Amino acid sequence: MQFTSEQRLDDGVLEREFTLGEIPGILWTPGSAPAPAPLILVGHNGGLHKREARLVARSRHSAAEYGYAVAAIDAPGYGDRPLSAADKQVRADLRRAKEAGEPLDEILETLIVPLVEKVVPEWQATLDALLALPEIGGPVGYSGMTAIGIQLAVVEPRISVAVFFAGGFVPGALRKAARQVTIPLLFLLQWDDQGNDRKLALDLFEAFGAEEKTLHANLGGHTGTPWFEVEDGARFFDRHLK
Hints:
This protein is α/β, with parallel strands linked by helices. It has helices at residues 53-66, 85-100, 105-131, 146-155, 172-177, 198-207, 228-241; strands at 2-8, 14-20, 23-29, 37-42, 69-73, 136-145, 159-165, 185-190, 213-218. 40% of the residues are buried.
């Protein structure tokens, strides 16, 4: 892991951009909490761009107010990482299908399955590097895209708690794997998210194998998750990571 930039923000948080091989990312660490800090991995539901405004706001708040180290990376084909020819084709197919009002599930499977297969090992490599830093200790939580979160929770024993955002497509194989997610879970659902099937989200919540799982449903569209859910999520992490 190589740090490529560093700045101390006005809330005291230290923000450092890094690269790990081809993976670009950002690490936010608290300014005053004693080291080593517990760690939260964050991913944006609609593309995993490490500079997405809502992701950055959540990350800085968790570091400044709750003392967490927080890390985000760009997945292959998102953020600062180039699109492959296959990525370009499937996204073009998705735009065409949306415009034509055609079913999207088959195309979304083609998009999401390879993304999960690529980015979960990258998250694991990033986790290896982050936990080697003296200022980070663990335990580790995950907050972000449900499809990636399911696979990460299944294969990575160091993830001990998760917050999933329900507003995203989850392939069939990962829906079946949901019963293997046994860590404490907070599931956030936007009730009026027209791009996502509410019943499928509720069925997925029921399928999770966790003995402790909580569903928070709020009125509003895809990007309307209220800020108080950030506070509730932080308290949820506190119960399990501190």
